[in-house]
Amino acid sequence: MTPMDGLIIAVPRGALFSDTLDLLDRLGRDTSEVRANDRKLLFTDIGVITMRPSDVPTYVEAGAADLGITGKDVLLEQAGPNAGRAARALYELYDLDYGRCEMVLATVAGDPDPAAEALRRLGVVRVATKYPRIAAAHLEGSGRQAEIVEVKGSVELAPLAGLAEAIVDLTATGTTLRENNLVIREHIATATARLIANPVAHKVKAKAIDELLEVLRAEL
Amino acid sequence: MSAAPEPILPIPSGTRDVLPDETRELREITESLRAVFEGHGYGEIYTPALEYEAVLGRAGDHAARPAYRLFDEAGQVLVLRADMTVPIARVASTRYAQAEPPLRFCYFAHCYRGVRPQRGQTRELLQAGIELIGAPAPQGTAEALTVLCHALSGCGLEGFRVGLGDASLYAALLSGLGVGNEDGARLLERLVHRDFVGLAEDVGALALSGADAEVLLSVPQVRGGPDVLDDLPGPVREAAAGLHSVHALLDPEVADRLIFDFGLVASFGYYTGAVFEVYDPALGAPLGGGGRYDELLGRFGRPLPAVGFALGVDRLHLALAGEERARAQAAAGGGGAR
Questions:
Q1: How far is CA B53 from CA A117, B48, B148, B267, B268, in A?
Q2: Contact between chains at B196 and A8 (C-beta distance less than 8 A)
Q3: Degrees (nearest 5) of the Cα angle B170, B171, B176?
Q4: Is the complex ipTM higher than 0.90?
Q5: CB-based contact B196 A86, cutoff 8 Å
Q6: Measured between beta carbons, which residues in chain B are less than 8 angstroms from residue A90?
Q7: End-to-end CA distance of chain B
């Protein structure tokens, strides 16, 4: 059983989860079962599969889902110009405008800025991040030499423990940065939730996708 | 505990070995395609996988760029071909320099690209296709689309659709609305990357009336049946008229497969008019594509209009297997998500 329009949507668990479920409710998909089930991942009756945000483009590109919702940060990181990879074959259809965050470069508060100081004296700045390609592109694009240190967990720890002079990370309110005595030195990009589509589904299920987009435009 | 694995003998990333069971299935597909191509009068040819860079390079910067280069014993730069369209343009201009057009060729050949290896997309890919040289639009385009649909039906594919657009359409729209070359190139780049959010941002930054901006945003999102060809803004009417005349020449069984798509942009810069892409709901990526390349042959010294398409045989195989699985699921009681 699939929903009336036959569209399968990849939904990100995590920060965008509850806003995304609210949106799906407004689009006429009853998400109460998703809300009640923390462990279940696949909800075929309403055409929803849930996953971590960074997996959404993978499922959509392969056609395992027709549509997906994920952050622009994820799309930027996976389409980054480094590592010699082509951009993902996906349509970016719509800016859903929720989950607004800033991708920033931050360092320990105080003057001089430890990142600028490292560049001046050592010629290279160490940058800890979960977004190695965005960080590398940003520093390279501004003509600075950087050693990108990829970490998987709390990035704020890196400059405090002496692993790196700077971090590139996503922040919504800046609270975590402030609590760790870090200040934003540069804005890199603004990220919001985006609706993406598989390139084949975008053609062969054009009518269903356009109808959904129309409702979406009216709702937002 | 099993013993430590034997050291493996690797092959390059993006290549693979094809073993007998799979080869038999691929052979069945290529035999079906070959029968259809030959039945429509397309003679099969082989060309060398290696060519001189200077010769293939005549196709210009926008052709599929060769990803692998090497030197021969005389120090000449050789490339592994990235498609068969350019080598066949060379063959038509040399071996058939005096022949009366139209010329019809088909091929089954490995091509080499520096892609990111993923499902059904390898760096060494087996392509099956045709080139129809010396047949202008719309008749030539209609013939190529007909052979394409017969070939796919012939190997048993059921749900396929063919997206049909026009490579010159968006460019005509941009110049018709007075968008400069630099701005226009940026918008086209957004379309190539399928980024409608970025397109909206860039269009919003231009000094255009609300109605013109809306046209630039909405036209590339138009896709559907022949009814989308009606009621279009002025600058794209000419390109749409070309698509209309192709549509009018097609048998219903072919015409019903078409999805007119104004957002379809050329994957290679040598496409000049109609472009097409082949989809099947059982696979998340296109099976192949093609289009008109009316100016390519001239670069090799024999100016003739031409059209052709290429199918990825591995992807076609994946789509056939996907359809087979879907049929088995449906027969077993409609289980599964799709």
A1: 48, 13, 30, 21, 18
A2: no
A3: 95
A4: no
A5: no
A6: 194
A7: 40
